[in-house]
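Q: Please design a sequence for this.
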């Protein structure tokens, strides 16, 4: 996990340096709180650079987590929202979840799901013997992955290869047991 953390902070440093080249760090906070219309740097930072950066980071993290969930649930290292066709039906899934189960989106990310998903690495019989309802956990993981993928598609459109790449980068960096926690961090860096 130490290698993954070091890689994450290195990539974060590079992102901050890239942003600092476009907008001086002293203008970041004023641009967020109350941009001066007379300052072109603050206007560009407030209405172009910072919102795009936030959307890119959140989209990459969401696709990384969706890819990690799908790979964990389906036990397939190539599974991702793009390769499974989730991105193609993302708008429909998001609309249906918003209409019929708005509480599901709010409660899905509370940690009701990380530990049982780790148990799914075991054979199904072993997971059942530990008291994990395997079909229910698989369904919940798929629902959360579809919700994440559909949110990203509705925000920025279809983006390929982050879903399968981010979990693999997290594993290569040394995050074996907690790849669900590190995949979003790697996904944030896969898509600028």
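A: Design:
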């Amino acid at each position: 996990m130490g290698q993954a953390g070091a890689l994450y902070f290195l990539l974060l440093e590079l992102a901050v340096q890239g942003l600092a080249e476009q907008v001086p760090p002293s203008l970041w906070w004023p641009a967020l709180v109350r941009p001066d219309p007379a300052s072109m740097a603050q206007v560009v930072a407030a209405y172009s650079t910072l919102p795009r950066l936030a959307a890119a980071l959140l989209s990459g993290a969401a696709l990384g987590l969706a890819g990690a969930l799908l790979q964990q649930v389906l036990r397939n290292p190539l599974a991702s929202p793009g390769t499974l066709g989730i991105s193609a039906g993302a708008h429909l899934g998001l609309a249906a979840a918003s209409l019929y189960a708005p509480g599901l989106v709010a409660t899905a990310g509370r940690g009701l799901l990380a530990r049982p998903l780790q148990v799914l690495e075991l054979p199904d019989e072993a997971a059942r013997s530990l008291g994990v309802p395997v079909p229910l956990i698989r369904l919940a993981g798929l629902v959360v992955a579809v919700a994440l993928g559909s949110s990203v598609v509705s925000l920025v459109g279809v983006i390929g290869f982050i879903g399968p790449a981010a979990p693999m980068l997290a594993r290569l960096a040394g995050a074996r047991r907690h790849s669900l926690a590190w995949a979003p961090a790697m996904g944030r860096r896969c898509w600028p």
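Q: Thanks. Anything notable?
A: The two ends are 23 Å apart (CA to CA). Residues 40-74 form the longest helix (35 residues).
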